[in-house]
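Q: My collaborator sent me two sequences in one message, no labels, and asked for predicted structures for both. Can we handle them in order? The first one she listed is below.
A: Yes, handling them in the order given. First sequence, followed by its structure tokens:
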Amino acid sequence: MKPPLSIRANELTRRFGAVTAIHNVSFTVKHGEIVGFLGPNGAGKSTTMRILSGILPAHSGAAWISGISVAEHPREIKRKIGYMPENNPLPGDMRVVEYLRFRARLKEVPRKNLHKAVESAMETCDLARTARRKIIGTLSKGFRQRVGIADALLGDPQVIIMDEPTIGLDPHQIQGIRKLIDSLRGRMTVILSSHILPEIERCCDRVIIINQGRVVAAGTNRELREEFLPGNRFLIEIEGSKIALQKKLNEHGLQVDILNASEAKQERHKLTLCANETIQGSQILQALYNADHCIVHSLNKSEPNLEEIFLAATRRSWEETIEMPKPIEPIDRAGSDGSSSNKSIKKQPQNKI
């Protein structure tokens, strides 16, 4: 029986020269979960995934896949992980089935299991009937991504790591890749990095957000909403002014923030109202009933989406970085003989994230 915990990362740190790419990155992923790994460009996502895959060593910290140390058993780890990089290098002159057989041999899939492994990967990725004998260089971007995923599935890995699997795809192709990823749920653990947040929101059980090389949030969408955007939100469509709306709510003691509002008056527009958890939609409607210069056409409760959560989490981490007190540098006081009483202090370069 496979262990319930597939991945454990503990204080992973990796530097490139004077630049610290990731610092003390820690998280866990359970077996069978599909987890989104999110962050701005340069946040350290690809570095972390390459360390987990055994491609890149960490300078400090440790990682385990199914209880096995990545640093101590890199060859065994490579058998347990299927890795699909962002820029997946595929030979344009090979046929799909030939390439997958070649990759299966490189992954040391036993000869007696090789045919079955290749057929299973092609069937899962919908390549068996549509692209088996096609030259890879003639395939669309969507089908090339499927070939990359089929490659990652070879050898029956316990963990699949995908870096931007839907980049450059059209909506139909994205939907196909989403269904493919969803079919892996429960069978194996999937870590998915993508800038297409609606796709992450649809198919992932949890998300991990990294910013400036550090994990700044981890949890389900609901848990992260409660942490970063607590309270109630309402979408309201009114005919009137923001000023009249705010005034009427204040008269009834309702502290509500209004977002996405223009200053135009007597126009029909949609606004977002942010309130604490005690304020209900019925109270807002009652406060605005028969209000002058503000006619309510609709009011619906809404939930923040993953994009809003992502922006709130990364914004908070940037604010915390800015607010961190700077160390006080020693003052070089001159002695009575005019010489410095302190030794020359070499200023250390700050790590860049």
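Q: And the one she listed second?
A: Here it is, processed independently of the first:
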Amino acid sequence: MKIKKIVTISIIAVCGYLLSPATPAVYGADKISFVIIFLGGPDTGAEGETIIRQFMGSLSKLSGMKKDSIQGKYFNNIADAKIYIQQNKNSYIMASIGFYLANRKSMNLSPLAVVQQQGNDREQYYCIVKKGAHTSLKQLKGKILAGNVLYEDKKFINTMIFDNKIDISNYFQLKPSNRPLSAIRKLAAGGYDAVLVNYREYYSLKNLDLFAKIQVIHESPKMPALGLMMIDTTANRAVKSKVVNAVTRMCGQPDTKEVCKTFAIDGFDTIDEETLSNEITKYESAR
């Protein structure tokens, strides 16, 4: 009788463990998330869902990872993205070098790939004005500065873009704007005094009539155009080679290159943290 009672208790205990709420969390803990942060990009509704669906489909096909083992989310602002990432630690993140530098330590980020844009793997930022309106940053003190780049970390903007020469929060009237092209049009019409854009945005202006109406009065030093990073977790390390191999091939495959066209990039090339050592030192040594 005593033995029978012990066996019965053991069975109940095992069943209780298997059916406990904690069990699904264990099974789902290694699900890999892919987070796309595209500041000033399409809305996060239907258009955003199309972007992430394209990306996840291409990734699954090229990596061999099962669709039910991965999940994706698209964001056009950093605040919402960070909330999602905090809840999904096994995340690969497509974001800027600004995001990486600002969150490298707190999120334990590892850089994986730079993006190729018009044959260039360097990022650069430009402060542009209406042609003839201003000739230097000194003339812009107290004026309106707009652009989606203003959603980036302020320390990154001050340190890496303006080389610690100004504090944008005190120097300008800041008007962050989701749509870069709309901001440029407003600049040309006299609604803004200056707009801050990145390399991709500046290059795209060269094909428009607007380009003849603007001029650059400040450009940042060049830096690696970091585009892919991961949170350094055991689960992420286990699939790192698959993910990196898939992403670096994605833009060259006829049936998956549409994803790259969405972001106006030509491809991805691998990178390691040592390549970013100068940028890391400069950012982290600044106040």
